[in-house]
Amino acid sequence: MTVKINKLEIENTKRVKAVMLEPSASGLTVLGGRNNQGKSSVLDAIAWALGGNRKRPSQANREGSMSDPYLKVELSNGLIVERKGKNSDLKVTDPSGDKAGQNLLDSFVSELAIDLPKFMDSTAKEKADTLLQIIGVGDQLAQLEKEEQEKANQRLYTGQEARSKRAHANELPEYPDAPNDYIKASDLVNQQQEILARNGANQQKRNQAKQLADQFANQKYLIEQKENELARIQQELSDMKAKHTETATDLENANKTAAQLQDESTAEIEASIAEIETINDKVRTNAEKAMAEDEALRLENQYKALNQDIEDIRQSKMELLNNANLPLSGLSVVDSEITYQGQKWDNMSGSQQLIVAVSIVRKLNPECGFVLIDKLEQMDIETMQEFGQWLEQEQLQAIATRVSGGEECTIIIQDGMVVDDNPTPVAEVPVQDTNTWKGGF
């Protein structure tokens, strides 16, 4: 059951001489009058009566009064709250006559209900934090927002690196005719040495063939000499012929082999050795381009993955808020700011701001069914009436002040006293706002 104010009596407090008021059980009770007549003093007195000495005005006694302040508030739960005497001692009496104290009042009186400006004047983030803590998702949402910011920072850095790598890769030339690996001069020199070794072996075989040719000519000469001495050296001649025949065969074979030999050219390797740095520069450039493209692709894929991570976190935040027990339909938190019907606080109308604030105050302590609102003149009549209709719809009680003497005021206060004993009710105006409280109240 929500607790509301049934009746209040205030005497000699701040600018109030004597005010007795029975506010409407729901909707707006508007205290009208000129400036400095005691309207705000009524709200300050209620806050003091219910909120304790921390809400005591710095100059509580009415100037010029010989009597002490007297406060009496009768609540819908049957409690009677009084402050009287020189020290304005608190007295809380329940319906059975038992006495209680400030702790009992604190259990159902919301601090923001008696000090709404504390919420209204807070920063956008403080408002959002208040709401999130009330609905129990503040820590979770803060963690998600921290993760989102970290991912966003990482994505920004990754995107910059990816663009830099991609630009670097695009600027580098490419040499399709260059080999895949670097050329080593030692490998080319070894190849050259192998060819030279084979060519040297060929030369040795040529030299051997020439030696055999010279040997053959010399043997032929000796044969001719021996033939002149045939009688004496017949046997020797026969041996030489045999040897000559053998040598001839070797010579024929050697000539055939020598004719078939072909020296290998080292010109290509020599050219490669001369151009090795040029070729290796091309290989190095190709390798750098490939590495830059690979790094750019890796960073681009990482950027896409971070994008998805951020979207997942944002979806988690939306699901967290959608599943939370928010106090008002259309109310949410986006980027650490409260939004209502898609509008941030500074874009809300005055009535929307009050609706949001009162909704959050009620959620903070559902047992507190009233709220005090000062300076309602910021609203035009129609907007104020719409706000009053919303309060009635939600069965909430609001006691507000307005610098006015018009019919929209419930009572008029002049010189610290009520001058209109027949309050005029606020005219009814069709309400466009059909938002209702969510479950939990």
UniProtKB/TrEMBL annotation:
This is Chromosome segregation protein SMC. Residues 7-252 form the Rad50/SbcC-type AAA domain. InterPro entries: P-loop_NTPase, Rad50/SbcC_AAA. Residues 149-179 are annotated as: Disordered. Keywords: Coiled coil. SUPFAM superfamilies: P-loop containing nucleoside triphosphate hydrolases (SSF52540). The keyword NAD does not apply. Residues 209-323 form a coiled coil. It holds the Pfam family AAA_23. Residues 162-171 have a biased composition (Basic and acidic residues).
